[in-house]
Structures are given as C-alpha cells and as structure tokens.
Amino acid sequence: MNAPADSADVRRRNLALVLRYLDAHGPCARTEVAVGTGLVHATVTALVTELIDRGLVREAGSVPSGGRGRPRRLLRLIPERVVILAAQVTLESVHVMAADFRGHVLHRESAAHHAPYGDPRALAAVIACLVRSAEAAVRDATPHAHLAQLAVAMAGPVVGPSHLVAAAIDFGWHSTDLRALVAAELPGLDCPVDVVNDANMAALAEYHALAAEGVRHPDTVAYIKADTGVGGGLLVGGRVHSGSHGMAGEIGHLPIALDGPECRCGTRGCLATYLGPEPLIRAAGLERLAEAQGGEAALAELDRRLRDGDPDAVAALGAAGHALGAAVLGVSGVTDAGEIILGGYLATWATWFRPGLEARLAGRRALSPDMQPVITFGVLGGEATLRGAFQTCRDALLDDPTSVPVTQRTPVGGPVRQR
What we know:
Layout (H helix, E strand, L loop, with lengths): L2 H23 L2 E2 H8 L3 H13 L3 E7 L8 E6 L4 E8 L3 E8 L4 E8 L7 H22 L4 E9 L3 E2 L4 E5 L4 E4 L1 H8 L7 E5 H15 L7 E7 L3 E7 L2 E2 L31 H4 L1 H7 L3 H7 L1 H13 L3 H25 L3 E6 H4 L1 H18 L6 E4 L6 H16 L7 E2 L8 E2 L1
Parallel strand pairs: 4-7, 7-11, 12-15, 15-16
Antiparallel strand pairs: 1-3, 2-3, 4-5, 5-6, 8-9, 9-10, 12-13, 13-14, 17-18
Helix pairs in contact: 1-2, 1-3, 2-3, 4-5, 6-14, 9-10, 11-13
C-alpha cells in the first residue's frame, strides 16, 4: 500500500543528494556524482535527466576522460532558474531582497511602514507592496525563472508548522497569522509564503559566514543580536533549535535584574531594557533626535558620536556591556554553549561594548576558564537576517528539487515554458 509513496520519497531524497553534490562540487561529470553520492551510475543518469528537465542543471561542455574513453560531459547548476524572495521587518521599515539560487541579488528595496501599534494588517500591506515590486523586477530580468518561496523574517517567536507569530511585543501583536495576512494581500503570487524568526535567520547566516572564514564552531552555539530590537537564537549541530514553543534563544526578554526597568512584556529588568535601541538612545542623550527623525536616524547619530569619542555615547555602551555580560553568563549557564556569537550593533560597536562585557565575565573566567564560551563577533551586519532567510529557503529547495516544475522545451532560441 505504501510502496508508491515510499518510492517517491526515495526518489526525492536521491534527487536532493545529486543536486547538493553538484551544488558543492560542480561542474563535474556523472561518474563523479555517482562516486561522490554512492548511487549507481544508471540511477545518477536518470536523476540528472530529471534535474535537467526541471531546468536546475545543464550540461556545460566536456573534458578528456584521461584514457581512451569518451570525453566526460560536465554538469553544472543553473542559478538563474530559481529566484527566492526574502523580507525583513524592523520597527520602522520593511526590507525586501530577491536573489537567484547562488545568492546573486537581483532586486533590493526598502520602505518605511508606519504601521500602527497593534495592527498587523497595515504592515502586511506594506510587505505585499514591496514583494509585488520585487516580483515585477524579477520577471523583467529573468522572465522564465521559478519563484521558489517568500520568507518574511519577523521579530518574536514563530510557532511550528502554523507559522503564527506568538508575540511581537514591540508591535503590539499576540498570536498573529502574519503569513495568512501577507498571502491575502498577494493573491497572484505563485509561491509559498513562510514567516520565520528574524534572529534565528541572522544566527544561521552568521554561523555559516564565520565558518566560511575558518571559524570551527562547537556543537552548541548561542547567538545574541541587537539592532532595531534585541533577540537571539540557539544552534545545535548547525541547525536552529527553536524549543517547544519557538522561544529557544529569545534572549531579549531574559530578566537580568529583579528590580530593573519595566518592560512591555510584563516583567522587569529584561535585557532589552538595557541593550535595546531605545535605552541606548536615551542613555546617550538622543531622545529628541529619535522623536523628530526616528530611531534609525538616532542610531546613526549614536554611531557617529561613538567614533568621535563622545563621553555620553561611550558611557552608554559601557553600561550596556555589563548588561550584555550578565546575559551571556545566563545563556552559557543554561545552554552550555561553547560559543556565543554577537551580531547587529553588538558586533559593529564591539570596541565600546567589550570593556563592560569583559568586566562582567572576568570572575567566572578566573574560576573556570576552560568552561566558558568563546565570544565571537558577527561579520554580516545588517545583511544577516535577509541572508539567513534566503539560505533557509535555498536549503528547502535543495532538500526537495521536485518543488521546481518541469520545463517544456521548445526549439533553440524559443522560450522555456513551465508546466
């Protein structure tokens, strides 16, 4: 009874195996794919034919076999066949990026959303407007590309398969189906829509970016970021671990003081009340600028003052560094993370956060230096979340190449149609 489904699953897994091998090692010949994947040559030939039919792979010339045999025909991916859309929501803006399968950016656009507190529908409309603009640009540039997925990265825990945003505290939402709201605004969009946690996406992107630079990560890695909010993620074996309710790594609302400032989450002394943009802006004396021009402008001015050595700006980050150190101690004690990656402006302003951070960690390091996590600073800055969302969609496609439709080929020079 289950044989057809099992057969389809095996074929899908084998297609993914071949596609991932070509992604990592191409261009290469079918014989190399067979050796590298452990699949028999006849199976590889059939699978490659299907990947070619789906427009994901093409033959790209040949090279001598090294003996008397026929030349080896090389295979390579077709990166322009697939386009992925990624959107990031911040407190003031929406950012959208369209990129092909290799990550080449085809379109990028940002806009202020001015969404009223507590109204996700207004924000969904802005997201949809930017996505429509990105889709039009992609269709103009690559009319035959397959639009694979739209991932919307949002602050707050995102719960399981339902993709509900459980709580977006800074936006005044609770248990919001943002995916359904965005999809309703985009009735003609012919691709799946997913909502993902922004900090988890940034954690994943920084993890891979640092690995590409030679960093060898331990099994358990925690991530803490601050930009337009404070968040975090937990990676186990290189994969995001979201916990039972999507809350794993949500460090922004970890209480670090029993009698600290009140937080909008309903408790006191959360890390966000010390390390978030609003507390830093206030501590640096930039409240009026934020009220007049917005938080992003105030953060840009804070950056300028830090680099000019402004004493109020330097003192604000020094104090925040102590709060960050307290959070690092808490996270490392609970997760036993071997590494903690700091991202967003925690990395950009590492010079000014580091003294307070190191002072807070010094006692524990003196007591048990071999048991403390390595502190690593991220390298992607503001790109991390969009890049992580893109990578998540790309990994999903690599896992299931059958999600890309078969193309119907026409004579050379003619269009390629999907069916």
